[in-house]
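dumping the sequnces here before i forget
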Amino acid sequence: MSNPIVRVENVVKTFPKANVVALDGVSLEFEAGIVYGLLGPNGAGKTTLIRVLTTLLRADSGYAEVAGVDVAADPTSARTLIGLAGQFAAVDDYLTGRENVEMVGRLYNLSSGDAKQRADQILNRIHLSEAADRPVRTYSGGMRRRLDLAASLVGRPRVLFLDEPTTGIDPQSRIDLWDIIKDLVAGGTTVLLTTQYLDEADQLADRIGVIDHGKLIAQGTGDELKDRMGGSVIELHVADDVREDAIDSLVGISTGPATFDQYRGSVRLPAPDGSQTLMNVVRRLDERGIAVQDVALHKPTLDDVFLTLTGRGAEEAEAESEATPAKRRRSRGRRN
Amino acid sequence: MTTKIETAERARITPLHAAKDIAVITKRNLLRNIRLPQLLIFATVQPIMFLLLFNYVFGGAIGGAIPPIAQGDYINWLLPGLLIQVAAFGAGQTALGLTEDLSKGVIDRFRSLPMARSAVLAGRTLSDLIRNGFVITLMVIMGFVMGFRYQTSFLGFVAGLLVAMTFAYALSWIMASIGLAVKNPEAAQSAVFLPVFPLVFASSVFVPTQTMPEWLRAFAEVQPITVTTNALRGLMLGQEALADFGPGINPIQALADAPSVGGQVMMSLLWSIGILLVFVPLSVRIYRRTVG
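..and the predicted 3d for all of it:
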């Protein structure tokens, strides 16, 4: 890539006290004008990478650059180029929406007149003009997220970092927020966002990086990632004692093997031809006399991406990283 | 469009920019006090309650044991001490405010902005100083209503208030270190009161130190809350306020043995300066480490 706006090279970050390797040599880069989606379960290292790129955390080793500025060597310059909306809406409850945004403007060294004008513009853009003069404590979760996003836009960032922008908000607010982000991108803002949801990455991101245990394990467009799963996914439940038979009998029926997802207790396999594959699967199992308790055809989820890429589900990965660090270390060893 | 954010030139934060950042953060913190009524109520009702309770409950019993300069009015003796007690307890707000900002991600937001690094701590302690000034003013007014009269001069009285504010500011930095070290608001709640309780009660705030056992007295008479309380009493009531006129003690001898007002003021200021010299750099260091 000739001129990447974000460049991360072999970044390592450990938290020795917690005995956790949060980033285990991550490298990625992308050009201006796109949305890069970082997809992974809780504890995968997404937030740590955002914190390194936004100067909140210093990497142990490796190199990170935003808009040509080395974030470790010149954090102050880097801060003039970025906007950050973190995992919590970092807004003041007792200030009004407008006061929150104005305050950030003042901290960007804008005069109070300019800060006011900028706040007006942004609140309008983020559809908060009507609620702008109410104290934030009266806002809904979705509104707080939007306000947080507004605050991150004050400095006209070259790169906007959004850490799980829609986690914990209701579906309608999520769609509103997606629209706003799409709008920003259409206006030329470059975005790096993290998410646990494949559909979110799919909706917003031009390119998706899948991160797990502090490593980038796959990269591509949403379609490319889904193609690895072969379009749709079949999820089926059979009795435990015939599971092995079922998996064996489905060999060759699809583009990939059937795998057992321990976490959900279901057998999954790619379904490139959708309902046709489903019919083939049901017919095959019927021929072998294997009773199917439940079967479903659905679009691939993060879980499916994970199952395909790592051989274990995302929820399982999450449960693992929430387990004791020592346990996590062991499971790392086992996989490697 | 008139708003414009320079990038290349602003890679360095000028002192003027830093001062502005401190002012913005200070204002933000003060607004919180004004907009959250319960904060203001606790900040004002509690000291006034202390004033009323101690004066009318203990006043009668203790009134006779205090130096005659107080004219037998316990309030004269009590108010300077209570100002220091309230400053000591109020300093905990610095820790609570910081931990709350930390846990809500507000400090992350600040740190991702091209603003002065010093502004978060400087703004926090400055806004707490202003809040303290407000509470002290309120207590003094209440004290006057309840019969407090300074026995020296207006100048001495004001000098006493300044000594109290300086000490309150220094304590704020101790609490900043504690807050940043414990990080979460719930833990900070108890962590800040732990050091304050023994210091406030093993001092001359409520009773003369002369009545304490020898070993406790040795500690009580040098610790900062006692010397600052003594400094205030000396400045507001006069040298006699520091003398031990206990039964069987020659008044002339008592006066000669009393610590000098100037000495107590000096010691209080030295304590404040010493605390600042240790805890400002310490807070800054913990702040840097805590947040990145």
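The CA atoms of residues 90 and 252 of chain A lie 51 Å apart.
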